[in-house]
């Protein structure tokens, strides 16, 4: 069975994008193995960290390298995709010449509560993916207006 590494651009415990990714994994389970990569221990990109590379970076790079394709799932933040996702992409493309994303097939989906359900964020992500040699599926475009259940203490 082909393996798809799934990178979710939210660290939030109750993330609707994590739930979306898990639902897609469930729907595809007879045809694809979805490997949802945990980004919670991935530090902010810093060249100095190559002196003693954190295990979480090797793990991220290994899981993308081993995958047959990558699914990017992200909410929209201020009309872009999230810094969590950009950070994972930046680690994956470094050091120079060791880009684990190069020539991987990729697909982009996402959900946000705003009226356009992450469409602008996805568009920006597609521009970045082209520059790092991900072969991105043009269609289908999946923009999903997700609803959050808010609980906030005052
Ligand atoms: C800094 C920030 C900026 C946001 N900007 C947008 C936006 O431009 N468009 C939108 O639809 N939602 C925006 N949101 C709402 C998020 O998409 C929403 O919180 C979403 O549930 C986050 O995804 P998650 O549930 O997977 O964590 C923003 C949220 C944050 C924290």
Q: Into which percentage range does the β-strand content fall? A: 15-25%
First CA to last CA: what distance?
48 Å
The coarse silhouette is globular
Helix content: 25-40%
Assigned CATH class: Alpha Beta
Structural class: alpha/beta
Indicate the multimeric state.
Answer: single chain
Largest sheet: 6 strands, parallel
The figure for the number of domains is 1
List low-confidence stretches: none
Unique ligands: flavin mononucleotide
| CATH level 4 superfamily | Flavodoxin domain
Task: Describe the protein.
Strands 1, 2, 3, 4, 5 and 6 form a 6-stranded parallel beta sheet that branches. Helix content is about 30%, strand content about 20%. The longest helix has 13 residues, at about 120-130. It contains 4 helices and 6 strands; from the N terminus they run βαβαβαβαββ. The chain is globular. The chain has a single domain (about 1-145), classed as Flavodoxin domain (Rossmann fold, 3-Layer(aba) Sandwich), CATH 3.40.50. The protein has helices at about 15-25, 55-65, 85-95, 120-130, and strands at about 1-10, 30-35, 70-75, 105-110, 135, 140-145. It has about 150 residues and is of the alpha/beta class. Flavin mononucleotide binds near residues 12, 16, 76 and 112.
Provide a short characterization of the protein structure.
The protein is α/β, with parallel strands linked by helices. It contains four helices and six strands, in the order βαβαβαβαββ. The longest helix is centred in the last third of the chain and has 13 residues, at 119-131.
């Amino acid at each position: 069975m082909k393996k798809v590494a799934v990178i979710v651009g939210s660290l939030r415990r109750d993330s609707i994008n994590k739930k979306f990714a898990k639902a897609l994994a469930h729907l595809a389970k007879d045809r694809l193995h979805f490997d949802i990569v945990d980004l919670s221990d991935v530090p902010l990109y810093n060249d100095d960290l190559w002196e003693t590379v954190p295990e979480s970076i090797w793990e991220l790079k290994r899981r993308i390298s081993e995958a047959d394709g990558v699914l990017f799932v992200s909410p929209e933040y201020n009309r872009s995709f999230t810094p969590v996702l950009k950070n994972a992409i930046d680690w994956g493309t470094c050091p120079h010449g060791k880009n684990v994303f190069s020539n991987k097939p990729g697909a982009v989906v996402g959900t946000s509560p705003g009226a356009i359900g992450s469409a602008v964020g996805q568009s920006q992500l597609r521009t970045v993916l082209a520059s790092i040699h991900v072969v991105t599926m043009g269609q289908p475009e999946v923009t999903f207006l997700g609803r959050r259940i808010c609980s906030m203490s005052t």
